[in-house]
Design brief:
Layout: H1 27-41, E1 44-49, E2 52-57, H2 60-67, H3 83-86, H4 95-105, H5 111-138, E3 142-143, H6 145-161, H7 174-191, H8 204-236, E4 247-248, E5 251-252, H9 256-262, E6 264-265, E7 268-269, H10 272-285, H11 288-303, H12 305-319, H13 329-334, H14 336-348, E8 354-358, E9 363-365, E10 368-370, E11 375-379, H15 380-384, H16 407-410, H17 428-445, E12 446-449, E13 461-464, E14 466-469, E15 474-479
Parallel strand pairs: 2-11
Antiparallel strand pairs: 1-2, 3-15, 4-5, 6-7, 8-11, 9-10, 12-15, 13-14
Helix pairs in contact: 5-6, 5-17, 6-11, 7-8, 8-10, 11-12, 11-14, 11-17, 12-14
This protein binds protoporphyrin IX containing FE.
């Protein structure tokens, strides 16, 4: 209690603390709940989730102190709800285990490896252009979100596992359904006070989750076993692995899985279970996040036609007038204005709106005590919209990220959509290139337009671990006239 007095925060009841807030709250309410807390008490606030002492912060100094502290790398308890699915993969694992895994996985995100994935982003984007063709033809408004989700699922299956589920053409795929189900049930548990308790095991949700996870694990296990066999066979023959699935667009590629199969940890190869945990983690972290990133970027482009025009001009200047010309890593690097637009989108709509840490040993931050056992919540989303840190925070101004005066250069801890420090997002470059790839393809074929009957209110946001548009992103698309110059 003495420690609690160092902080401002709402009055709390004995034992249940501020737990009543979380009763019957939706994922939409949750976004506003923390906003209200910061409006009332500032950007460092204490409260109790039941008996759990919790500190919320959206303050750059605090965020810097937390994310750079080697003793604050463990995730908060809520992440545990994902552990049936993701095990000790990179997102959830702790201390020594995390450190060893991060070290061996980092090379898998080397730019030379990302380079070979650009073709996967581009080929799937061409497919998406095709799938959306019917909406360009009939002019009807449609929710772009589910289509982008299928695109990102195709990309992550191919890059993580080297398999194709062809989600865009086959959205009924058992695997695709199971990914969606496992993600949504695990996440709902975090926010529902009842579902957080063992009562959950008596609900139909538990049975569904079990079934989905069983299916997902079986799928990944299968791919791992057959890939390992191929790899062994090919090393016996001293030949290159060259299976059917391995050849995309005529070029051989290695999925993350192949790299994991070849690597070793403390002198021994990774077990199938360890590999599965990492592949499943990529599957989880690598699709919902980019889906929100792409969808909210399209929303902003439709909302600000002059910005869309400028992005389109840049794309044509870099890639020329042939809408089918594939992008490369080099051309993606030249799309600097598009990158600013994506970064500004992630400021207002960060795919991961909050992250959590568990304090293992007592630390002092900005003169205040953070006792061992404290749950810490970092408000990436709220900091991005705070008038103390951004002029006109709700205005969409991509130039904030321009050159030397860029927000990131000025104070990197003011802008952390990919987190920062040791446990930052390992997939950041992968994600940015994927988003740039698909947007540059879509924009060469279609103009994105806000439907006329759309009220011009900002989208209602829902925080399901990943920030999502509660009512989707309804947009219209118009085919672009062929360019000849
Ligand atoms: C716009 C897209 C993305 C955003 C905004 C994003 C954001 C984040 C954030 C904020 C974290 C920190 C989580 C935490 O502290 O609990 C994180 C971690 C992580 N991300 Fe991403 N991510 C994106 C895309 C991706 C992609 C495409 C992949 C994989 C291909 C990926 C893989 C990971 C992994 C494995 C971690 C855990 C890293 C660790 O703890 O060592 N992410 N991401």
């Amino acid at each position: 209690l003495e420690v609690a007095q160092q902080y401002s925060g709402p009055p709390a009841l004995p034992l249940i603390g501020n737990g009543l807030w979380f009763v019957n709250k939706t994922t939409v309410d949750f976004v506003n709940l923390i906003q209200k807390l910061t409006d009332d008490y500032g950007d460092v606030v204490r409260f109790w989730m039941g008996p759990q002492f919790t500190i919320y912060t959206g303050n750059p100094k605090w965020i810097e102190a937390i994310l750079t502290n080697r003793n604050l790398t463990n995730k908060s308890d809520e992440y545990g709800f994902l552990s049936n699915w993701l095990g000790d993969g990179l997102l959830l694992s702790k201390r020594h285990k995390w450190h060893a895994r991060r070290k061996i996985i980092t090379p898998a995100f080397h730019f030379k490896i990302l380079d070979q994935f650009v073709e996967v982003f581009d080929r799937n984007a061409a497919e998406l252009v095709d799938v959306l063709g019917k909406f360009a033809a009939n002019g009807q408004a449609f929710d772009v979100f589910p289509y982008i989700l299928l695109y990102t699922l195709d990309v992550i299956c191919e890059t993580a596992m080297g398999t194709s589920v062809d989600a865009m053409r086959n959205s009924d795929s058992e695997y695709v359904k199971a990914v969606k189900e496992a993600a949504s049930i695990s996440i709902t548990r975090m926010y529902d006070v009842y579902m957080r308790t063992p009562l959950f095991y008596l609900t139909p949700g538990y049975q569904k989750l079990r079934k989905a996870i069983k299916m997902l694990h079986a799928y990944t296990d299968n791919v791992i076993v057959s890939r390992r066999k191929q790899l062994e066979a090919s090393s016996n023959e001293k030949a290159e692995v060259a299976s059917e699935e391995h050849e995309y667009g005529g070029k051989k590629k290695e999925a993350f899985l192949d790299l994991l199969l070849k690597t070793s940890i403390e002198g021994r190869p990774l077990t199938n279970l360890e590999i599965r945990e990492e592949v499943d983690t990529f599957m989880f972290e690598g699709h919902d996040t980019t889906t929100s990133g792409v969808s909210f970027t399209l929303y902003n482009l439709a909302k600000y036609p002059a910005i869309q025009q400028k992005v389109h001009d840049e794309i044509i200047a870099v890639l020329g007038t042939d809408p089918h010309k594939p992008v490369t890593m080099a051309t993606l690097n030249e799309l600097t204005y598009l990158e600013m637009v994506i970064k500004e989108t992630l400021r207002l709509f960060p795919s991961v709106p909050i992250i959590g840490r568990k304090c293992v040993e007592e630390v002092t931050i900005e003169g205040k005590t953070v006792p061992a056992g404290t749950n810490i919540i970092i408000g990436i989303y709220y900091m991005g919209r705070d008038a103390n840190y951004y002029d006109n925070p709700l205005e969409f101004i991509p130039e904030r990220f321009e050159g030397e005066k860029s927000v990131e250069k000025f104070n990197p801890y003011k802008y952390v959509p990919f987190s920062a420090g040791q446990r930052n997002c390992i997939g950041q470059k992968f994600a940015l290139n994927e988003v740039k790839s698909v947007i540059s393809k879509l924009l060469r074929h279609y103009e994105f337009v806000m439907p006329a009957d759309q009220n011009h209110e900002p989208p209602v946001l829902s925080s399901e671990l990943i920030l999502k548009p509660h009512h989707g992103i309804p947009l219209q698309i118009k085919p672009r006239a062929p360019l000849t110059h």
